[in-house]
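QUALITY CONTROL LOG
STEP: pairwise intake check
CHECKER ROLE: data steward
CRITERIA: each record must contain a sequence immediately followed by its structure tokens, with no blank fields

ENTRY 1 OF 2
RESULT FIELD BELOW
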Amino acid sequence: MKVVGIAGSLRPRSNTLHFVKTALEVLEKQGIQTELISLMGKEIKPCTGCYDCVKQARCTIAGDDFEEIICRMRAADGLILGSPVYLSSVVPQMMALLGRATFVAYWNNKFFTGKVGGPITVARRAGHNLAFSQLLLWFFINGLIIPGSTYWNVGTAGTGGARDAEKDTEGLQTVTNFALNMAALMKKLFP
């Protein structure tokens, strides 16, 4: 079993990256292989709505990092999507990835269906729930199975750098509980 965690922050020492890494570390301790993908330094062009993916069974937009990431997402049994919250929303580079991934998966036997996963959002003060909901909608429309936790998987951190994330003990515990539930569910689904 393998889980891919994608951190949407473009900061080198991001709080979002810290929360996603925390979840992946818990999964590793539960015997599940993990891989971290940071969107920092990656280019993901937005979907153009060309529908070439219907005819070609892949996205034909070239010259960016999408193909490498979608291949890793497709091969995984589980996905964790982490995004910082900007203006109460998921960051644009994450939404560009998810928009294109949805189209490609839909026209290729809906290959995300049956995978396990969930979102993590990180904000300074507010907007978590709107961004969290955006990501939940992505999981639902793509047929993924979402385990719960003891609260929503949201972190509170205000400045760049993982030092703020380390102070949010409740958020880190929530993400830990989510990862434990994810591991338990995956072990039942993929024995």
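ENTRY 2 OF 2
RESULT FIELD BELOW
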Amino acid sequence: MEDTQILDMYFTRDETAIDATRQKYGMRLFGVARNILRSHEDAEECVSDTLLRAWNTIPPGRPEMFGAYLAKIVRNIALNVWEAKAAAKRGGGKVNVLLDELAECLPSRDSRPEDAHERAHTAQTINAFLGGQPKPARVMFVLRYFHGESINAISVRLKISESKVKSTLFRTRKKLHIHLEKEEIFI
């Protein structure tokens, strides 16, 4: 089923929109959540929460890229679950590794609600930067830092060595850091 048809079902409040969304995007959403949380049950819960959030936000919103919209929701929900669990047990984890890798490129995560405009500008700047990168580097960056895939999984998926993935990600992070400094975002 096409995204426009699914979105039309949301707008008419047809509850089968949720089933159609789960059928088309469920596995992709589950994969994103599982990569972050490393828990089958928690990932399933994140997918369910994502579908509920989509139901509650469509309408009035009508996302242009429905799959990306859903992926962003599930990623944010999974990160919130991970943060809650990490706060509860103060343990380390894969998400810490991802955030540590990006820490030298990005402004501090300590922010106030009034900083929302700056965060949006930073996100737009990063998107513009990635748009100017070669496709392999862009794909690796998104798989690693948005989808939370391991170096090994990216290597297998793209049929390249792990060292190639690591070096490409390292160089891309360095370029991102320089780009953010030029844009006076990184302090």
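INTAKE CHECK: passed for both entries
DESCRIPTIVE NOTE, ENTRY 2: The domain at 3-91 is CATH 1.10.1740.10 (Rna Polymerase Sigma Factor; Chain: A).
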